[in-house]
Write a structure and sequence with these properties.
single chain, alpha+beta, 3-stranded mixed sheet, two-stranded antiparallel sheet, 13 helices, 13% strand
Length: 291
């Protein structure tokens, strides 16, 4: 007599194993193979803030460190975290939801490693800073992880697929297929991170980037018709922002008018004085400053 044996396994037993260290997560999201065919694009990206999104501009790493020390471990008294060893992935989402979306594929140990490296790096530890630079927003973030938004319509991003503007075969050992993303040329692709405002989906909502919100609710209704990509990809995948002198010059028109005269508060006391009027016109498709 045949006997059928059913064994109930937890979902985690068959799910993809999560990274247990920064090095494992970096390897999981390694995009070095892209450089062989897309050399120019890869070199542009390497110089961008996206490539080192945990270090980024001078304020990024320090802000993450402050969020850990002053937020998670201090002011968020009901977070359940008193020390770095208590930190979980959920705690770090206030920063990493956008600065490192692939944290979803990591264990709490990685969240703790990132938190400690941010604190140490902000304090001047170059080794900690170098560790954080192993991770960043890369090809897979935009061309797979964030490439589909309407999951009930388009489904989840598929493993082994690179999403772009065309379909077909892709000459890569791991990512063998190309598929179209309906949002690859649309501002909403960027808006997933450069967001609408408070992240109300988080347990502890935070107010950070609101670029897409001001773009959507101010620039577009005022007649603006350019996408984020049209303005911020003029230098390819370097994607310049406000710290790029050329980009800043295009974003803001500044005019200064000055009139000099002498002010005589009392006889014999003639003081050189100037009236200065500064006018700044925002030409960008969103409020300035923002992130």
């Amino acid at each position: 007599m045949a006997v059928l044996l059913f064994i109930a396994l937890p979902l985690t037993a068959v799910a993809a194993e999560k990274a247990k260290s920064i090095d494992e997560l970096a390897k999981m999201y390694d995009v070095s193979s892209c450089k062989g065919c897309h050399t120019k694009i890869y070199e542009e990206w390497e110089k961008s803030y996206h490539a080192s999104s945990l270090v980024g501009s001078p304020r990024t790493m320090a802000t993450i460190a402050s969020a850990v020390k002053d937020g998670i471990l201090k002011e968020w008294t009901k977070s359940g975290a008193k020390e770095v060893k208590d930190i979980k992935v959920e705690h770090m989402l206030s920063c990493l939801k956008c600065h490192l979306p692939q944290i979803k594929d990591a264990t709490d140990a990685v969240a703790q490693e990132i938190a400690k490296a941010a604190i140490d790096g902000a304090a001047g530890d170059d080794a900690a800073k170098a560790k954080l630079k192993k991770l960043g927003i890369n090809c897979l973030t935009c061309h797979n992880h964030k490439a589909l938004i309407h999951k009930w319509t388009d489904g989840e991003p598929e493993a082994g697929v690179i999403y772009g503007n065309k379909e077909g075969a892709h000459a890569d050992a791991k990512f063998k297929s190309l598929k179209k993303s309906p949002i690859m040329k649309e501002s909403i692709l960027c808006g997933q991170c450069h967001g609408l405002g408070p992240n109300f989906d988080l347990t502890e909502p935070t107010q950070c980037a609101t670029l897409y919100g001001s773009y959507l609710h101010a620039y577009v209704p005022s007649g603006g018709n350019k996408t984020c990509q049209e303005c911020h990809m003029t230098k390819g995948h370097f994607m310049p922002g406000y710290r790029d002198p050329e980009q800043a010059k295009k974003a803001v028109t500044v005019s200064v008018d000055a009139t000099g005269y002498y002010f005589l508060p009392k006889p014999g006391d003639s003081q050189p004085t100037a009236k200065v009027t500064v006018k700044m016109l925002n030409n960008a498709g969103h409020r300035i400053p923002d992130g």
